[in-house]
Write a structure and sequence with these properties.
152 residues; alpha+beta; CBS-domain; two-stranded antiparallel sheet; 5 helices
């Protein structure tokens, strides 16, 4: 049975750059039949992750609306955190991977155990994790990779 992430990871994963256009991100995901792809800078550092979920605004009404607010004593008090609205607004008008990616994604190291990767995949809810060493992307491990290793 494989015991370490380096034994089961994809050591040559598909990646995109932060300045990759939204159209190219979609094309990359579709052509490679991937639910997500790591965003890697010029130095090979994993700076984010773009998934199919990042391409869709998570709003029940399908609209981007301003958070609820009240005017009080000549000022405006927002009843919802503005950070969430700003994040959704940035994604709604994204023109590049950097605009829509999840920054600082959960990662594992190549020397991590398969069990540690399984725990992180379970607790984070992610289907794939970038594998990094000294901040640089060296692979990707998926839920199915981990399940396969644990089943053997």
């Amino acid at each position: 049975m494989a015991e370490l992430v380096r034994e089961i990871m994809d050591a040559s994963p598909v990646t995109i750059a932060p300045d990759t256009s939204v159209e190219e991100v979609v094309r990359t995901l579709r052509e490679n039949e991937l639910p997500g792809v790591p965003v890697v800078d010029r130095d090979g550092r994993c700076v984010g992750m773009v998934t199919e979920a990042d391409l869709v605004l998570p709003d029940d009404q399908g609209d981007l609306h301003i958070p609820h607010y009240v005017n009080l004593f000549g000022g405006t008090v927002f009843l919802e955190p503005l950070g969430r609205f700003e994040h959704r607004l940035r994604k709604a008008f994204a023109s590049s991977a950097a605009d829509m990616m999840t920054e600082d994604p959960d990662t594992v190291r190549p020397g991590s155990t398969v069990q540690d990767a399984a725990r992180l995949i379970h607790t984070s809810g992610h289907n794939r994790l970038p594998v990094v060493e000294d901040g640089r992307l060296v692979g990707v491990v998926t839920r199915i990779d981990v399940l396969g290793a644990l089943a053997r």
